[in-house]
């Protein structure tokens, strides 16, 4: 309020010499008109100054409130953005970890399958070998049995034991 009073005094001191020098002596009512104008302007300022000042302050306050709410929203959105970036980074780390784990599991699974396949092949080879030996023994028994049947069916043939063994060895071998 003190600035406002000082402003009025400065304007009055500035305008007073202008009016004093502007008189040429013929117009005596210029001083009254000037005083009336200054009085009107003063009354107008007196009644309008407070509402204008209050309106101006309200506008400043409103703008400040809007700026503050925008700043709050900006901080919130920045926080949300930072959180989203953190979650994306964590997801990338987790994804990399999952890929690494999957690769390790794939290697382990491939090794297990390879090992199982080798064992299965060894089992099949052993089974084939056993089956082959069984068939050879079966065949040998059949040949020996057939040979013995032939020998014993023939009554005219007299063979000693050494000759019988030699004949069997020739047939089997």
Automatic annotation (TrEMBL):
Keywords: ATP synthesis, Cell membrane, CF(0), Hydrogen ion transport, Ion transport, Membrane, Transmembrane, Transmembrane helix, Transport. F-type ATPases have 2 components, F(1) - the catalytic core - and F(0) - the membrane proton channel. F(1) has five subunits: alpha(3), beta(3), gamma(1), delta(1), epsilon(1). F(0) has three main subunits: a(1), b(2) and c(10-14). The alpha and beta chains form an alternating ring which encloses part of the gamma chain. F(1) is attached to F(0) by a central stalk formed by the gamma and epsilon chains, while a peripheral stalk is formed by the delta and b chains. The chain crosses the membrane at residues 30-49. This is ATP synthase subunit b. It is a single-pass membrane protein. Its main location: membrane. The keyword tRNA processing does not apply. Belongs to the ATPase B chain family. CDD domains: ATP-synt_Fo_b. It comes from Campylobacter gastrosuis. InterPro entries: ATP_synth_b/b'su_bac/chlpt (IPR002146). It comes from the Bacteria. It holds the Pfam family ATP-synt_B. The gene is atpF. The lineage of its organism: Bacteria, Pseudomonadati, Campylobacterota, Epsilonproteobacteria, Campylobacterales. F(1)F(0) ATP synthase produces ATP from ADP in the presence of a proton or sodium gradient. F-type ATPases consist of two structural domains, F(1) containing the extramembraneous catalytic core and F(0) containing the membrane proton channel, linked together by a central stalk and a peripheral stalk. During catalysis, ATP synthesis in the catalytic domain of F(1) is coupled via a rotary mechanism of the central stalk subunits to proton translocation. Component of the F(0) channel, it forms part of the peripheral stalk, linking F(1) to F(0). The b'-subunit is a diverged and duplicated form of b found in plants and photosynthetic bacteria. It is found in: Cell membrane; Endomembrane system.
């Amino acid at each position: 309020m003190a600035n406002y009073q000082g402003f009025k005094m400065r304007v009055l001191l500035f305008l007073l010499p202008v009016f004093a020098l502007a008189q040429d002596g013929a117009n005596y009512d210029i001083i009254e008109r000037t005083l009336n104008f200054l009085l009107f302007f003063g009354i107008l300022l007196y009644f309008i100054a407070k509402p204008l000042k209050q309106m101006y302050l309200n506008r400043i306050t409103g703008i400040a409130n809007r700026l503050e709410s925008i700043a709050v929203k900006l901080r919130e959105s920045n926080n949300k953005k930072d959180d989203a970036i953190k979650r994306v980074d964590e997801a990338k780390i987790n994804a990399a970890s999952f890929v690494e784990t999957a690769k390790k599991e794939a290697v382990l699974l491939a090794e297990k399958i390879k090992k199982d396949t080798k064992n299965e092949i060894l089992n099949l080879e052993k089974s084939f070998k056993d089956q082959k030996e069984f068939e050879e023994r079966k065949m040998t028994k059949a040949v020996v049995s057939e040979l013995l049947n032939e020998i014993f069916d023939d009554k005219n043939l007299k063979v000693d034991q050494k000759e019988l063994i030699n004949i069997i060895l020739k047939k089997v071998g």
